Structures are given as C-alpha cells and as structure tokens.
Amino acid sequence: MTMGVEQFLVIGSILLLLSIAASKASSRLGIPALLLFLLIGMLAGSEGPGSIPFDNYQLTQSIGVLALVFILFAGGLDTDWKSVRPVLGPGLVLATVGVLLTALLVGGFAMLVLGFSLLEGVLLGAIVSSTDAAAVFAVLGSRGAGLKTPITPLIELESGSNDPMAVFLTTSLVQLLVTPSASLPQMIPLFFQQMALGALFGWGMGYGVALLINKSRLEYEGLYPVLSLALVMLTYGATAVLGGNGFLAVYIAGLILGNTNFVHHRSLMRFHDGIAWLMQIAMFLALGLLVFPSRVVPLAGVGLLMSLFLIFVARPISVFLSLGWTDFNWRAKAMIGWVGLRGAVPIILATFPLLAGVPQANLIFNLVFFIVLTSILIQGTSLPLVARWLDVAAPTPLLTPQTFVPQIDTESRVPEINIPGASPAVGKTLLEMSLPAGVLIVLIERDGVTLAPHGGTSLAAEDKLVVVSTREAMSDVYTQLGLPPLHAVE
Q1: Angle at Cα 356 formed by Cα 350 and Cα 358, nearest 5°?
Q2: Burial 164-188 (b: 16+ CB within 10 A, else e)
Q3: Residue ranges of domains in the chain, CATH in brackets
Q4: CA pair distance 455, 68, nearest whole angstrom
Q5: What is the mean pLDDT of the chain?
Q6: Residue 324: CB partners within 8 Å, gap ≥ 6?
Q7: Residue among 147, 110, 148 at smallest CA distance from 126
Q8: Distance CA 310, CA 30 (A)
Q9: Which residues are 466's β-sheet partners?
Q10: Statement: residue 207 has pLDDT above 90
C-alpha cells in the first residue's frame, strides 16, 4: 500500500519527536544519541512494532550522502583553526595512514575468520575504518568530562577529515571487485587527484562563500541561510563532477568559512548546526529502518569477534604506528585509540557494495551494522571511565554567556558621531570596516529612523552613530570614518 503525503508527514514528525526526546535521554544515560536514533528506526521498521516496510538501499545511500555533506560542513564550520593547527600533521596522518592501516588489519583478520578474499576483507576494513568523534564529545559532555587539550583538537580534526579516505578506499575496492579491467596502480593517481582537487576546491569555495555572503547584501535576512545551503551543495556537487573528493571539499570549505568574518555569523552557525542535527537524525532513522534484526542476530558471534579485533587490536595499532613520530605519550595514544567510535558512515558505505552487486555484500552490510552497534555500546559507554583511568580527563569548562558589548567603565566613551558625505566609510558594511576590539556601534540614526545595525549594515552619508568604545580604540574609529583627530571625545 502506498503511503500518502499526510501519512508520511505524521510518521516522519513522530519519529523526529521521538529522536529529540531520545537525545535528551542519551545525555542523562551517557549513551550516544545515534544509538537511540538507530534503535528507533529499527523499532519502526519492518520487523519492529512500527512495521514500516523499507528496503530501499539506493534511497538510503542518497540520504546518507546528502546528510554527510551538511554534517561535514557544519563540523568544519565549528572547528577552531587555531586549536587544530598545532596538530595538523598528526591529524592528517591519522586520517589517511591510520585509516589505511585499520583497513588492512581488519581485512587480514576477515580473511582468517570469514574466509574472505583479500579484496573483500580489505573492503570490510575500509568500510569500518572511519570514526565518529561527534558521538565521543556528546558522551563526554553528558558526563561533565573532557579530554586534555592536545587530544581534543586531534580527535576533532581526525573525525572531520578521515571520512574522505574511507570513502575513497571503499569505492576503489568496489570498483576492483566488480570491474575485471581495473587495477590497483590505476587507483593511486586517482587518490591524489581526488584529494588535491577536493582540498583546492574546498579552499577556494570557503573564501568564495564568505565573499559572496558579505557582498550579496540581500534584501531579506532569511535568504542568507538559503544562499549558504545552495553554496554547500554546489561545493560538493561541482567537486565530485570534476573528479575531486566532495566530502573533503565541503569540510575544508566549512573550516575556511568558520574561521573567516562574515555577516550573520551567529545566525548562520546556529542554522547549520540545526541542519546537521536534522541530517543526523534522518540518516540514522533511515539506516535503522533498513536493518532487519533477524539477519543481524545470527551473525552475533562472528560480528562480536570482528568488533573486538577492531576495538582492541586494529585501531590501537594503527594509532600507535601513525603517531609513533609525535610527542604524544602512550596514555594519549591509548585514549585516541579508544576514541575510535564507529558511527553512521560505515553503514552508509556498506550500501555501496550492495548496490554494485559485490559478492558477500549482504554479509558485509549486516556485519558492519553489528560492529557499529557494539562499538557504540563498548566504547561509547566507557569513554569517561577510560579517560580517567588513563589520566587524560579534563573537566568540561562551564559555558558562560558571551557578550559583544565592550566593558564600560570610567574610561569608556559613548559618543554620537556624524558621518560626513566625503567619509571613506560611506558604502562600506560594518564588517568591511574591521573595527578594532573594544568598539561596538549600537545604534544608527538615518533620516530620522533608528536602526539596530549588524555586520552587513552599510553606512551612509549623514548617518549618526552611537558608539561604545574604549579610549584607546576611539582614535582608530575616527581615522576609519575620515574624521580629524580634533573630533575625538575627551
């Protein structure tokens, strides 16, 4: 029976509401929310109480790819470049060499335990090689714990940049398995091409998006989120069409944009954070609906064996080898190894061999789902305990309300300044003026109308500005406005 639009909206809204409630419960229980999202999808699926028939792997893969695009962009947008720059080298090695080592180790073990061929084993290893550190920080945050400074930015960088490597390995191995004429030497230049183009387009689009947002001066503020959505999709699509890695491009574009000044910064950050959460929920629900428990349970024994090997052998070895040249001590390396939490990306990647008709694809998909579940249960619930045991835990700082109003004291100035017609500031936005720290334009009076300015507000001749500023910064304000020093307020 075909589901009508009304039924779809009702069921979809109920699943979203249940997922939101589950996210609140997860923070109390210390369980990653993604696990609960998956369980809700499974309960709503064909073999659960919801009995929603769903086995569309193509649709699930499309949802997953779209979700990953916005999740990676939001992750880059929220990454502080100053904090990750000191660990850039180790992070990139973990995201590339570490992923490859994990794939090879798991592949070798799969050959011994499952009787897979070399390519089939490494394909399974590549699918489960990427990590989901967003779930790690959610668990640590819910317990009021954190990790010491060198570890946290490294995990943050690795989690955002290791998915492109896992995607490349998975798609390349699928091609090797289904295309007799394909060969491994052909994949090596393709790897460098995808990564180079992905990095180049991501860097260019990051600055291009910032420039376009700042220069567009749209009439309606609500169009800025729409503009940013279109540019994110363009970044991924154009990069992929031209032969680059679109996932890497959107992450780098988000990283560049997030560390650049642009108008409506706060509102756009909140918007993309909300989009990322929506995409996560939709992705995990779809994956949960796609899984049939009756096919996963019989694989519990071998699935647990593969998962334990990944958690206790493959991931730690890949971390220690990848970081052997760094100054990280064994405690930090052990914690980074334990943080290798698997999320939705492996399940999405497991749909690629299914759609391509790879032998053992059904077995691989069900094994991957079991490995993800056990990784979340074993590693996700024990992270705070392991962090304390390894003495790498750090208390999560309390978030304090942030204010953009400079501190006002007896030395502060709150003048009203008239902008002359010949001022070099006329036509510029407040963002383009690059006002010094300690300066805030709180009001603009224009033609008898009072405006509440923001970064995209353009200044006009004869505007009257109400400025809050420190004494030291006031002279710079007058210089930028083209006013002589004698206008300074004493």
Answers
A1: 75
A2: bbbbbbbbbbbbbbeeeeeeeeebe
A3: 5-395 (1.20.1530.20), 416-487 (3.30.70.1450)
A4: 30
A5: 84
A6: none
A7: 110
A8: 22
A9: 416, 443
A10: yes
CA dist 6 → 2, 12, 107, 437 (Å): 12, 10, 46, 52
Measured CA to CA, the distance from residue 156 to residue 84 in angstroms comes to 8
CA distance 172 to 189: 12
Q: Are 123 and 170 in contact (CB under 8 A)?
A: yes
User: What is the number of helices (H) and of strands (E) in the chain?
Assistant: 24, 6
- What CA–CA distance (Å, rounded) separates 337 from 305? 18
Between CA 44 and CA 52, with CA 50 as vertex, the angle to 5 degrees is 75
Separation between Cα atoms, residue 91 and residue 72, nearest integer Å: 16
Strands (E), 238-332: none
Comparing C-alpha atoms, which of 96, 275, 344, 129 is closest to residue 196? 96
Within a 10 A sphere around the Cβ of 255, how many other Cβ atoms? 26
Among all chains, which residue has been given the structure tokens 């260019």? 204
pLDDT-above-90 percentage for the chain: 34
What does the alpha-carbon distance between residue 275 and residue 256 come to, in Å, rounded to a whole number?
19
The C-alpha atoms of residue 276 and residue 287 are separated, in whole angstroms, by: 16
**Bridge-based pairing state of the strands 464-469 and 449-451:** unpaired
Task: Return the pLDDT at 490.
Answer: 44
Tokens of 120: 């089939």
Contacts of 244 (CB under 8 A, 6+ apart): 193, 194, 196, 197, 198, 200, 201
Outline where 311-389 has alpha helix (H): 315-322, 330-338, 344-349, 351-356, 361-375, 381-389
Task: Quote the pTM value.
Answer: 0.79
Q: Which pair of structure tokens corresponds to residue 24?
A: 């609140």
**Least confident window among 65-79, 335-349, 430-444:** 430-444
| Amino acid at position 469, single letter | S
Convert the pLDDT of each residue in 63-106 to its tens digit: 888 988 998 898 888 888 888 899 999 999 999 999 999 999 99
Give the CB-side neighbour count of residue 392, counting CA atoms within 13 A: 24
Please state, in angstroms and rounded to a whole number, the distance separating the CA atoms of residues 83 and 444: 36
> Quick check: 399 pLDDT over 70?
no
Query: In the numeric block, which tokens belong to residue 164?
Result: 């492109």
pLDDT of residue 300: 87
- Rounded Cα distance, 255 and 271, in Å: 16
Window from 128-142, 268-282, 447-461 with minimum mean pLDDT: 128-142
8-state DSSP, 442 = E
What are the residues whose beta carbons fall under 8 Å from the beta carbon of 206, sequence distance 6 or more? 252, 253, 254, 255, 256, 257, 260
